[in-house]
Structure formats: C-alpha cells, structure tokens
Design a protein that fits this description.
Oligomer: single chain
Strand order of the largest sheet: 1-18-17-16-15
Helix content: under 10%
Length: 353
C-alpha cells in the first residue's frame, strides 16, 4: 500500500493563484486516502478499500417537504424521474417503471414531450458527443438516442450495463453484475471484457489520458488499463460514492453521499486532487464547462449548489431551492441551464442561473 504523492492545483491559466492555505488543505486531504495497487493487503489479510463487512451502495438521503418555491420553472411529470440528460437543446428524462425516454424542448419545456420507446427501464442517461445514451440493465442493453429524430439505436449486451462512456472510437460499458468493463469496437462488437476483483462496476468515465471505473459497493474508483486489459490501482472515494462526471481538466468528479463531499480525481495516474465538504445530502452531479461549475444536488435540503472548481479548492457560486428529492441533475451545454429531476413525483425543474 502506497500513499499518493502531494497534489497540485488543477491547471487553469485564467484562474487566480491558489493561496498557500488552500494548497495545504488539498495536500492534507490526500494524506487520508488509501491507494491500493492490488485489491488486498497480504499482511492484513483483508481488502483495504472495503468500508464495511457487508457493503451496500449509498442511496440519496430522504428529502423533507419543500419549504421554498423552487427556482426557475417546474414542468409536471407523472412519476419519479431516475435520470436526466441534455443534447442539442433537448432534455431527455427517464422515468421509474417506464420503458421509454421522454424528450422535452428546453426552449418550450411546458410543451408536450415526445416519447422514445425502449426495450427496458432506463436507470441512467449520459450525453456522448451530442447523443443521449440510455442504460437499461434489466434489458441487457443500452441505446443511443437521436434527440432530433426521436429514434433509438439499441445495442444488446451479455450483461447489465450501468454506465457508458466513449474512448475515441471505442465504447466502454460498465457491467454492474458482471463486475467488469466491456470494450466495444466502432461497430459495437465486444473486443475485450476487463475484470479484476471489482465488487461492482457502477459507472465508467474517461478522464485525461485514462479510464476510471466507479465501484459503489467498495465506494472506490479504479484505473482501467485498456491496453493491458486490467483493473489497476484503486482509491477510496469517501464513505459512500454515489454519482460521477468529468470536467474540462479531465478530472473525475465524485459525490460522497454518506460523508457529504465532492472529490476530484486525476485519471492518469489516479490521484485525489481535491476533497471538499458538501453538507446536506450531496448526491447527483453535473458539470458546466462554460462556467467551470460543478452542480451538486442536496437531497436533505432540497437544494442544488454550484461550485467553481478551477482553483485549489471549490468555491461556492450558486445555492438554489429545488423540487423535492432532487436525485438527478444535468446541464445544457449551450445555455448553461440546469435541469433537475424529482424522484418524488414533483416534476422537472429548469433553472437559468
């Protein structure tokens, strides 16, 4: 077991210089993280990244009834929203117990939604190069959705996909139950399945120079060596890693739902650069590359908070009231609108910060 090296602030020529105090804080946060080059410590005889004996995935903290009017506009939706994503001015929303994705025009969010039928319930949405990608673990498939045409191209898999990412012309798929990352070629043919003692593969992300798999059961992130076909070093991601995205610096941003924190990891080599406290039930996360802002939902408070992440530590820029149980969030890359989905049947919230 090796301690990670001292961190340096994220590069940004336009950002102000980082204070000595902020740098010391970041470095101190790194010293508390366990770096594992294998999945167990032979001397201790147990997994150093396992938090508890019988791990469970972190869930969103339960939200109280709202006490403030949600910011922006709320569009009704008859059900719990499981995830949201945007592409080309269109919002895609996945609903619980519905084998479809609904598409909304962000310029006219109150207009009737279009529906794209799919072979299974969608548990996660992401946007890859302007295309919304929907993961359907129960159907053993994911779908690329053309939001303009309202059509879906379904890719069947031998496994239950939990997350999808792109690495050049290859597609990476996190197969949760198989505890593996599958690599597909440009024609969506499987060319390699990478596994190495993961507890679960809950998402896969491509940062600057490397791929990272999120293991929510172990509450850790692991580096994926696509060339060698191996899972390499791992880092603890708090006490309850919940959601993840990437920023324009190529870092992987992760929410810690149990401790209430935002963590920023470099992908290659895998290093924790920042750990910032985010009390209030941190859960969903999205990133606005135009404003350099990471948006995090706080389900215990029915709020969403926006942090500028260019400096040595995140700086709060926005704090806004939301619909009840704001489990999911996305950002429209064209307009920086923030869209939040309620998992308590309170609809879709569209905010222009």
């Amino acid at each position: 077991m090796t301690a990670p090296p001292t961190a340096h602030p994220a590069p940004d020529a336009g950002a102000p210089s980082v204070s000595r105090r902020a740098f010391r804080w970041t470095a101190l946060a790194l010293t508390s993280v366990l770096l594992l080059t294998g999945c167990s410590d032979a001397g201790a005889g147990r997994d150093q990244l396992q938090v508890v004996e019988d791990p469970e995935r972190a869930s969103a903290a339960s939200a109280p009834p709202t006490t403030e009017e949600p910011a922006g506009r709320v569009v009704p939706a008859d059900g719990d929203i499981t995830d949201v994503a945007t592409a080309h001015g269109t919002l895609a929303a996945a609903m619980a117990d519905e084998d479809a994705v609904r598409l909304y025009d962000l310029e006219k969010p109150g207009a009737e939604a279009r529906t794209v039928s799919l072979p299974g319930e969608v548990t996660s949405l992401t946007t890859i190069e302007g295309t919304v990608v929907a993961a359907m673990p129960d159907a053993g498939a994911f779908a690329r959705i053309d939001v303009g045409a309202g059509e879906a191209d379904v890719v069947e898999l031998d496994g239950a996909p939990a997350g999808v990412a792109a690495d050049g012309d290859r597609t990476l798929v996190a197969l949760r139950d198989a505890k593996a990352v599958q690599v597909l070629d440009a024609d969506d043919r499987p060319v390699r399945t990478i596994r190495d003692d993961l507890y679960s593969a809950d998402d896969v992300l491509v940062g600057d120079g490397g791929a990272v798999v999120l293991d929510q059961l172990r509450t850790a992130v692991f580096s994926v060596d696509l060339a060698d076909g191996t899972i390499s070093e791992g880092l603890r991601a708090g006490q309850g890693a919940a959601d993840a995205t990437t920023d324009e610096y190529g870092r992987v941003l992760v929410t810690d739902a149990r401790n209430g924190a935002l963590l920023a990891f470099d992908a290659d080599p895998l290093l924790l650069r920042q750990r910032h406290p985010v009390p209030g039930g941190a859960y969903g996360i999205a990133y606005d590359a135009k404003r350099h802002v990471a948006w995090i939902t706080l389900t215990e408070r029915n709020q969403v908070v926006g942090y500028d992440v260019r400096g040595g530590q995140p700086e709060e820029k926005f704090r806004l009231p939301t619909v009840r149980q704001p489990d999911s969030v996305t950002v429209d890359e064209r307009t920086s609108r923030v869209v939040i989905g309620s998992a308590a049947e309170e609809g879709i919230q569209v905010i222009t910060p």
